[in-house]
Amino acid sequence: xxxxxxxxxxxxxxxxxxxxxxxxxxxxxxxxxxxxxxTRGTEEEVIDAKGLCVAPGFIDVHVHLREPGxxxxxxxxxxxxAAVKGGFTTVxxxxxxxxxxxxxxxxxxxxxxxxxxxxxxxxxxxxxxKGLKGEELSEIGEMYESGIVAISDDGxxxxxxxxxxxxxxxxxxxxxxxxxxCEDEDLSTGFVNEGRASVISGLDSIPTIAEEVIxxxxxxxxxxxxxxIHLTHLSTKGSIEAVREAKKRYGKITCDTCPHYFTLxxxxxxxxxxxTKVNPPLRSHEDVEAIREGLRDGTIDIIATDxxxxxxxxxxxxxxxxxxxxxxxxxALGLSMGLFHDGVLDLIELVRKFTENPARVFKLPxxxxxxxxxxxxxxxxxxxxxxxxKNTFLSKGKNTxxxxxxxxxxxxxTIVEGEIKYRAR
Amino acid sequence: xxxxxxxxxxxxxxxxxxILLILDTAESFKDISRxxxxxxxxxxxxxxxxxFYEPSTRTxxxxxxxxxxxxxDTINISSSTSSYVKGETLxxxxxxxxxxxxxxxxxxxxxxxAPHMLAxxxxxxxxxxxxxxxxxxxxxxxxxxxxxxxxxxxxxxxxVIIGDIAHSRVARSNIFTLRNxxxxxxxxxxxxxxxxxxxxxxxxxxxxxxxxxKNADVIMMLRIQKERGGxxxxxxxxxxxxxxCLKPEHVKKAKKDVIIMHPGPMNRGVEISDEVAxxxxxxxxxxxxxxxxxxxxxxxxxxxxxx
Lengths: 425, 307
Prior knowledge:
The complex is a heterodimer.
Chain A: E1 2-12, E2 17-26, E3 29-34, E4 45-48, E5 53-56, E6 58-63, H1 76-86, E7 88-93, H2 104-117, E8 121-126, H3 140-146, E9 150-152, H4 161-170, E10 178-180, E11 192-193, H5 196-201, E12 205-206, H6 209-225, E13 229-231, H7 237-249, E14 253-257, H8 259-263, H9 285-296, E15 302-303, H10 332-341, H11 347-352, H12 356-361, E16 377-387, E17 406-416, E18 419-423
Parallel strand pairs in A: 1-4, 1-5, 6-7, 7-8, 8-9, 9-10, 10-13, 11-12, 13-14, 14-15
Antiparallel strand pairs in A: 1-2, 2-3, 5-16, 16-17, 17-18
Helix pairs in contact in A: 2-3, 4-6, 6-7, 7-9
Chain B: H1 16-30, E1 47-52, H2 58-69, E2 73-78, H3 90-99, E3 104-109, H4 114-121, E4 125-131, H5 137-151, E5 158-162, H6 169-178, E6 184-188, E7 204-206, H7 209-213, E8 218-221, H8 237-244, H9 248-251, E9 259-261, H10 274-277, H11 284-304
Parallel strand pairs in B: 1-2, 1-3, 3-4, 5-6, 5-8, 6-7, 8-9
C-alpha cells in the first residue's frame, strides 16, 4: 500500500525535521520525507495535510489494557482502538492484569491477543515481583524472551528496598528499565492530595512526600547499582526538583508525567466527582506549575497517559470506594496541545515527549520518520476545537474528568505500519 | 431573602444571608417545642426519611422530632437495618427510596461527599446529617444559633475549638459558619490532630490549650474520632486527657462570661471534666434543645416554602 501525505508540517524530532514537507509511505515503511514529492498516480491514498501536522505515531509508555482478567473494564481490542484514535501507534501495557503478567505465559497471551485484536503495537511490561506482592522476583528473563520491554509493579512501589535493588541489578542483563510507581504506602492512606482542598473536603489525604520519599529512594538505589530507572506518573514539585538534581549526577534516570497532572489541580475534587480520583492524586497549583516547568526544561522526558479505564459502576459510588484512574488515551493529545497553546513547549518539543524520548528510553525502533523504518505516522490538527464527549470514547472506560471540556488540538489520521487505522470523521 | 437551594449539603456553599435566614427562621420555631401541644401543621403530608449509616442519638432524634413537630411523616433507616449490609450500593438504595416519593432525605455517612452524590441523582431535598470528616452543617448552625442566643452577637467573638480537628466535621462546619462573621477562630489540639493547611481556612492554630483559651468567648470541645482512627494520632487516651481535658482551671483563663460547648457525645474525663460539662458555663444541653428548632427551620425552608 502506498500513501502520500502532502503539504503538512512534518515534525520529526529524532531527525531534526520541522517544516512543510511530504511523506511517502510504501509497503509499511517510510520511503521518503522531502519537499514536493510527486504523486506516481499509483498511491491508494493521497492525503492533503495542508494546515495540519504530520508526526511519528505517538508512543504511550503507560496504559492499562486490562486483558486478561478485567475485560469488563477494557480489552486489547477496545484499548488499542482508543489508542489509535488518540494518535498512539505504540503502547506499553502494565502488568496488573488477572492473572498478573509475572510469567511468560501471560506475556505470550498478551502478545498473541495484540496481534489478533490490536489496532496498534502493544508491548507488555512485566511485573517486578510475583503477583505484584513485593516478595520475590518474577521470571524476568523468560518474560523478556517473550516480549516485555520493561518491568514494573505499577499500582504500588516495591516496598522492600533490598528486593528493588535486586530487580535493578538483574535487569542490567536485558538492558530494560525498571518503571517505578512512587508511593510510600504507609504515608499514602488517603484518596486526594493533602492540601487546602483536602482540609475543606475532609477526604483522607495523600501528602506529596508519599511520592517524593520513594522517588528519592529509588533514584538512590538505581544510581548505586548503576541501573536504569524510569519514574512514572510524577505529580509533585518535590519529585521534579529531586529528579532535576539527580539527573545532573547520574544519566540513567528518566521520568514521565500525565496530562491530568499538568491540567487539573486538587480543587477539582471539591465536588466529590469520583472521576477526579486518580493515583497519584491531582495536586496543588504549585505542583502543576512545577510539572509544567519540568516539561519545559526537559526534566520530564515523556508524557504518558496512565490510561486506566473502569466500568461505570466502580465510579458510581462514594468517593472513598471509587476506583482510581482516568481513561486518558482519547484526550491526551488535545490536553497536551494545551502546553503548546500556553507557550510551555513548542510543537517539536511536545512531539519529542511522545515519540523520540519514549522510543529511546524503552529501546523501541519507532517514534521517527526515518526512511526504511516502520510507517507509524499521525496527522493532527493542533488548532481545531472540539468538545470531549465520553460517550464517543472507543475505550470501554468512559471515566474522564474532562467530559464536556472544550479542547484545542485533535488527532485526525493514524497510520500503523503503512495502514490507515483511524480517520476522524 | 428567600431560600432557593434544593439541598443542604455543606455550610461552605451557603452565603451569610442564607445562614442568617436559617437562624432567624429557627427563632420563630423554638417556641413551639415549649408549648403544651408541640405541633404545627406546616409540613403535613410531607415525608422525611433519615438514612443513617453511622451511629447517632442526638442528630437522628433531633431531626425526627423536628419533622414530627411540623407534622411531617418520618421514617428512620439505619445501616444495620438497611440493604447496605446485603451489598446494595448507596445509589441503588437512594433510587429505591426515591420511588416511594419522600420529600426530604437526611443522610449520615462515614464517607465525605455521600450526600453530594445523592443530591446529584435525586430530585428531592437532601440534608447532610454528617458526612465523614467533611461537614455537619446542622450542628454548626445550631452552634451558631446558641452562640448568638447566649452572647447576643457573633461579631467580635473569639471562638476556640479544641480536640481532634483533623477528623472533625463539626470543626469544619463551624469554621465555615464563623468565618462569615468578624470572629477570631482558634483551633487547638495535639499537632497530629491539626491538619496541615488548616490555616488556609482563615483560622489560627495552637497546640497549647492554655494559650488557645486565653480570652475566649466560646470554647467548643470535640471528642476523639475513634471511628476515624483518631486514637492512633496520640500515644494514649490517658496522655491526651492530661494535656487536653478541659478543667475548671482552664476555664478561668477565658473571658468571665465564656460559654462551653460540645456537640456530643461527650467522653467525660477524656476531653471534658465533669465539673466543666455540668458547670455554670456549659451550654451543652441548650445546644441540643436549639438543634430541634434549627432543624425545623431547615426542613421548613427546604420543603415548607410553598405551603
